[in-house]
Predict the 3D structure of the following.
Amino acid sequence: MALLVSIAVGLLAACGIYLLLRPRVFSVILGLTLLSYAVNALIFLGGRLGATAAPLALPGARGLADPLPQALVLTAIVIGFGMTAYLVALALRARAETGSDHVDGAEPGEDRR
Amino acid sequence: MSHAPILPILLPMMMAVAMLLRPALARPLAVVSLAAQVVLAALLLGLAGDDAVRVYLLGDWPAPYGIVLVLDRLAAMMVAVTAVLGLAALLHAIGGSDREGRHFHPLFQLQLAGLNGAFLTGDVFNLFVFFEILLLASYGLLMHGGGAARARAGIGYVVLNLVGSALFLISLGLVYGTLGTLNLADIAIVLPGVPAADQALVRSAAALMVAVFLLKAALLPLSFWLPHVYAAAGVPVAALFAVMTKVGVYALLRVEAIGLAGAPATAGLLQPWLPVLALLTIAAGTIGALAARRLALVAANQVLISTGTLLAAVAAGGATATAAALYYLPHTTLVTGGMFLLAGHLARARGALGDTIDNGPRVPGALLLGGAFLVLGVAASGVPPLSGFLAKVMVMQALGGTALGPWLWAGMLVSGLVMALVLARAASAFFWEVGDAAAPAAPEPRRMMFALLLLAAAGPVLALAAAPVASYARAAAEQLHARQPYVEAVLGARPAVQRETRP
């Protein structure tokens, strides 16, 4: 189970990094989204996976599920979501101001000013 | 005063909310908030002066389970530097540039809340959260006023920092997965006993975290984003950003000195590459300043030089080097902030020429601006008798015995000489070789001039008060490197943390 999730994390991160290195802002945003999925799954792994661990400290329960990574992931998701929304708005603004959706703010070969 | 450590975070946050509810009152509220923060910072400095480490448990949850804020000498000093710089930037902004876009003041306050939080937190996940608060506010502030140059700079800045945040989270996930804690003091206790199988993972996590801090601090291979972003930002925003790179330096110093130092898993993590990169950063900043055609770009490259100098001292380790860095830090932050403000004043007075280093019309009020330029330039380039000279001497003394000592000496001396040349050339273009026609006098609100003079005064004041400031820095460095007081203050003298071994 952990191995499967680890492979998924690696795959997501690899795809995210590839997209991050693309020249258009849209693929960069998708890349960041994939990367943040990978990160969220990784934090989740930090708390160990288990389907049968007791969620609450009931009397006599052993091997409790760790609730902290879930809180951490929730924070990370909220922050990541807000950041992505801001980046989309910024990308639209930059497209309107510079007339290009290239990450450099100008088409390749074109003079910046 | 038991609630004192949380006030520098709560006050700007509450003010930001109040400003959003009553936008018409934003300016007076902002001035009140900054004035209160300066007073508060002075109180915190006084509180921290008794060498006790004050811990604030949020919601009174015991550490390491809850979130803690920690006030010690170093944190109080950083909050004070931020408050002074913030006050000057704000006074400059209310001269008019705050009305160029919407929501300048709430963003400004949130940025301050994030900065203060990052300085005061005692928990690495909370450090991440405060980083995000200050970054999100900085994205908004950077775009304040709009324009193609800012949009262009903004995309790169935001994407780069989002990648940095992702790396930070990966590192936190690994730290929690291996050590089972995110509290800095608890990390210090758990880290030395980490099992051999986990050591490589912990080391990678620490290396990732260091990389993120170095990205924020703009160390050389991660520094190319900085000059054009800072030069594109609005004048008061750029001045406030002068403290942003110092957050990275501070976080590295704090995490390394409290959390990572002395554990076999992270031994020698910063050596031998950090001094080399610091030296290269100084060189890159110097060359960048030499090539810069705008005063704001010179100031942005000055930020790089100061990052290199600070990190060289951090890499050297030990209380002496840290003490030197902690004297250098307020000096360089305030003087660079002043340089950005000065560039704004000149750009305003010279009209279409802006702050381009080129002969232009006679600048109205040249005496005052020229005087400020002289003081800031002398302080920035490290020529006697102002604070820059003293700070550099302290740092160089501390670096003398290290492996790269002679190289760093040469780098800092040459960089100081080149900075002096660059600034002298700029001054002659701005003030001496000017045409006969005076530029049309733009009305300059007095508070903007006051903001500039406030930061320009940092050089002389830090030089005159060198003895108390240096002894404070010395005590802060010793307190930081002692580690034990910090850990005991957070977790108690004999921490009884129940730990469960996990599969």
About this structure: Chain A touches chain B through 40 residues (CB under 8 Å). Chain A has one domain: 2-49+67-98.
